[in-house]
Amino acid sequence: MGLPFGIKPQANSHPVAEHSQSDSEASIIRDGDLAYVRQTAGNGASGYQEAVGAPVETRSPLGYHVNWLTIIFLNLNHMVGTGIFSTPATILRLTGSVGLALVYWVIGFLLAVAGLAVHMEFTSYFPNRSGSEVVWLEQVFPRPKHLFPVAFAVQSVLLSFSSSNAIVLSNYLWRIVGRAPDPWELKGVAIAAYTLAVITVIAHNKYSLWAINVIGALKLLLLLLISISGLVILGGHFPRIENPGINFRHGFQDTTSSGYSLSQAMVNITFAFSGWQNAFSMANEIKNPIPTLKKNATASLLIVFSLYFLSNIAYFAAVPKDIFLESKELAAAVFFRTAFGSSAESALNFCVLLSSFGNLLAVLISQSRQIREIARQGVLPWTEFWVSTKPLGTPIGPYLLKWGFTFLMIVSPPAGDAFQFVVSLKTYPDAIFHAAMGVGLLLIRRRRSRSETPRSDF
């Protein structure tokens, strides 16, 4: 079988399995230049990985605090940042019609499902390594050594900032205070908020995951409130709303024919769903990871899509399309003011602020595992600093790196441009690496079939 980058088994060679005396499954499988080593970790999972990769941590220094509920809320907190409160209006402007806007949310969900299936299969092959894409690209493309780890590290480390949500959080804190800040006041509060998030995750691993669960539950309740309100409005039981179904009567009227607008809408939809893969970065911290992730990562995506779709229905039921298009406020703000009156906007401001903070925590936790795994592969200098979890049992080095890059991104671009800038900057490189993983999945299936590696549990 031809393997990428010139790795080929010898012409008349066959895979050779080496067994230990105490185990019926082979401990090493050799296939030409490749050697697959079977290793077991403290999360109860075992699997074969190419020997050139970073070794499996038999005992996770970060503990095993990620349970089924935390998986759901890690993903939910990442997906539900500020997108569902603002993106629906953007999607409507770009697509031109309510009908196509709703279709785009379904397409975004289907793309996320496809990505979820890829992540699940990769995790079933390497269930005892945290870091997700970092590990998988290393294992799929082992030669030349470090090529894909370095490429992914450049993208991951240089783009490891969360400036957009920090700026949004700052905006809503100033709205609650009732004062319009100047640009540096806005940036100063954003830096303070992000610093608080970093201190939270550095201080204690287990308690920061508890905070994720609490904030995730509050987000869930908020989206349920919006969704149920929308159904009540559509049923005609909301006296403040006249003619609630008007936006749905000619749902595809005014649909745009602009390819640029439609492609931009797809970028925004993809960004709104990003985060469904969050918990996969912590596989080695999950007991029995394959069935646990399979069930609960799927559940989190289904929950978020259902609430996203129903929230869009609620927005379009309560707010006339022309008002929606003309407003420069959050879609959720227009909805709350129309449905509940202006006094409800203050409560919404606090909810969006809290949602942004939860997103900061979820992204910090998962990306710290990826940066730590990049260091374990030998890509970053001063490996011990990045890998160490001393003295608090948390990866302080990756957290400080993220703080540094986020600080730079907050103070550098104009605050108003940060969100769309980050959407574009992050989405396109992600798409390239996702395509590489799709190709890699076919390669790894072929290699495992040739070497007669035992089937995974996927």
Salient structural properties:
single chain, 458 residues, mainly alpha, Amino acid/polyamine transporter I, four-stranded antiparallel beta sheet, 17 helices, 5% strand, AminoAcid_Transporter, membrane, L-amino acid transmembrane transporter activity, transmembrane helix, High-affinity methionine permease
If you had to describe this structure to a student in words, what would you say it looks like?
This protein is mainly α and 458 residues long. It is built from 17 helices and four strands. A hairpin with a 5-residue loop joins β3 and β4. α1 runs parallel beside α11, α3 packs antiparallel against α11 and α13 packs antiparallel against α14. The longest helix has 33 residues. The radius of gyration is 23 Å and the shape is globular. It starts with 15 loop residues before the first strand and ends in an 8-residue tail after the last helix. 48% of the residues are buried. The N terminus is likely disordered.
